[in-house]
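Many introductory courses stop at the sequence. We go one step further.
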Amino acid sequence: MKKKLSSAAALVLAAGAVLAVQPATAQESTSAGIEQYREMLGEGGNPAELIEMTGEELWAEKRGPKSASLEQCDLGQGPGVVKNAYAQLPRYFEDAGRVMDLESRLVYCMVNLQGMDQKEITKKPFSGRGDYSTDMEALVGYVVGQSRGTPLAVPQSHPQEKAAFERGKQIFFFRGGPYDFACASCHSVDKQRIRLQELPNLTKTDSARAAYTSWPAYRVSQGALRSMQWRLNDCFRQQRMPYLKYGSQASVDLTVFLAVNANGGEMAAPGLKR
């Protein structure tokens, strides 16, 4: 694995050298190097698979004050149905009376089915760099993996789903913070990059599909599976904006906007990122 990573690093450095002498072809060379790096990382398999297995065990384990499993949790396809559920989230849930993404729905089920305390569940939903996954990350990995290969079909039939999309759109284009940034500052322009990282244009269908359907993902540099809530928080961090409250309606609304833009794409998550 170290040999593969060293080779990949050399490719990225070589792409940087090309950038200095051949500006017209630099982006193509860099992109090719990064793509080969990703392929080399993926040759050994995705570590997210182990986390998915842990999540499957947690799904069936009786836990909490009510000593219940999550096997009756309704993710939108009926109680206990996990297959292809993530590909149709976020969506409106009548029992909760609001639009929910996967993570907020899992919290809802853990509270109502297992009797767990919401504050405790959401106190530390993300693992530290190099730490083993949290229970939430493991459950996310399991559920997301069950939609692999399924076309994304996030619904927009309920009035609240449509309202969530419109609010999410406003958040995406809202400029603020010390740098007057918006999500759109990085993700509404073609062929834009930060350092060596290409930034997908999330307002265009093909680009949105490729980006959204590969998240949640295992980040090799952090040794952790990162959920969509984490991904959004990291974007807000880079904008120097306040973090989104975990599972907040604002975070769900933004996810709705991104997901609907990617509808029709084939789910490939959990993905594998640098």
